[in-house]
Design goal:
There is one protein chain. The protein is an alpha/beta fold and about 300 residues long. Helices cover about 40% and strands about 25% of the residues. Strand 14, helix 10 and strand 15 form a beta-alpha-beta unit.
Length: about 300
């Protein structure tokens, strides 16, 4: 077994992933922990509890973290790097929280709509994709990082130029939990590929009409054209289809190269299907692996200093 060299933490809003890694950024052991929302006000305690066994065995290993742990309600607020920003700047710009514990900065930009935009965690996944060879080190490329707040990122040779956020996952959750449009509370949330594809098709058929289309999640059920169990999948297809269509319009200059999609396998597959509907190829990358590779690069660069 390789020797432990550092601890990597991808700290999202809903959950945290702690990894004990060797010096090549290979995970030797992985543990789950409370997300930033749950750890608010007690990040140090959550970190110490999750890593106590490792530190007891291997000593005070350095730790490198990314995500909401560096947000305004995180352990310590890390600054945002202004775009354009080279992904390799993340290592030298990481912020110490306490001895041996660092957090990667986020990024901010003026998005294609002319509005301020920010991200935390996704920049480290992009760095990881670059290190893994999924992201090109030359030329322009469009990346999509789907999730609660989906990010669409325009890059050139490993430099983040600008990005755009769509709260696709959050809107889906709100519709499912706090609206009569998509489901009744008693209806379980299940995935129906057929109904998801049907929602994607609706988004392509009438682009830009989301607010008018979403009521169909209810009317199609009332008309017995859509099952109660399938309505959530149909709405998900409509949302993701609208997200993809809007983003491709915003980044129309990058309409030839495949889109790099980084996230959980289930989400990357859904976005790949939506991109295919628009005639675009997708390169799918596991988000957990990308985050680990990004944090590994930050560790290795810091070790060289």
């Amino acid at each position: 077994m390789s020797a432990a060299a550092f601890i990597a933490v991808d700290w999202g809003t809903s959950n945290a992933r702690f990894a004990l890694c060797d010096d090549a950024a290979r995970a030797l052991e992985v543990r789950e922990g409370p997300g930033a929302a749950q750890a608010r006000g007690k990040f140090a305690q959550a970190f110490d509890e999750a890593t106590a066994g490792w530190r007891g065995t291997h000593g005070e290993l350095p730790a490198f973290m990314c995500g909401m742990v560096g947000s305004a309600f995180g352990w310590l607020e890390a600054p945002y790097l202004p775009c354009p920003a080279d992904l390799y700047e993340l290592a030298e710009s990481s912020v110490p929280i306490r001895a041996g514990v660092h957090v990667a900065p986020g990024m901010r930009c003026t998005n294609p709509l002319g509005a301020p935009d920010v991200m935390r965690g996704e920049e480290t996944q992009l760095l990881g994709a670059l290190c893994l060879g999924n992201l090109s080190k030359s030329g322009r490329q469009l990346a999509c990082l789907p999730g609660t707040h989906t990010k669409w990122v325009s890059l050139s040779g490993g430099v983040v130029q600008e990005f755009l956020t769509a709260p696709t996952g959050e809107i889906f959750a709100l519709l499912c939990e706090h609206s009569v449009l998509v489901r009744d509370k008693a209806t379980p949330l299940t995935h129906s590929p057929k109904d998801f594809e049907r929602g994607l098709a609706e988004a392509v058929r009438h682009p830009g009409a989301f607010l008018h289309q979403i009521f169909q999640a209810r009317s199609l059920r009332l008309d017995k054209q859509l099952s109660a169990e399938g309505a959530a999948s149909w709405a998900s297809g409509l949302l993701i289809g609208a997200d993809v269509g809007g983003a491709l319009t915003m980044f129309a200059a990058q309409d030839d190269a495949p889109v790099l999609v980084i996230g959980t396998p289930k989400l990357t597959e859904s976005y790949a299907l939506a991109l295919a509907r628009r005639g675009r190829q997708a390169i799918q990358v596991d988000g957990a692996q990308a985050a680990l590779a990004g944090l590994g690069n930050i560790f290795q660069e810091r070790q060289r200093k």
